[in-house]
Amino acid sequence: METPVIVGLLVIAAVWSFYLLPVVFGERRDGPINSTEEFDRWTHSMAYVQKQSAADLAASHRDVVRQRRRRTISVLIALTALALFGAWYLDSLPLMLAGLFFGSLIGLYLVALAQMRQRREQRLKVTHVSERPSDWEEPQIKVIAH
Question: CA 12, 16, 21 angle in degrees (round to 5)?
Answer without folding.
Answer: 145
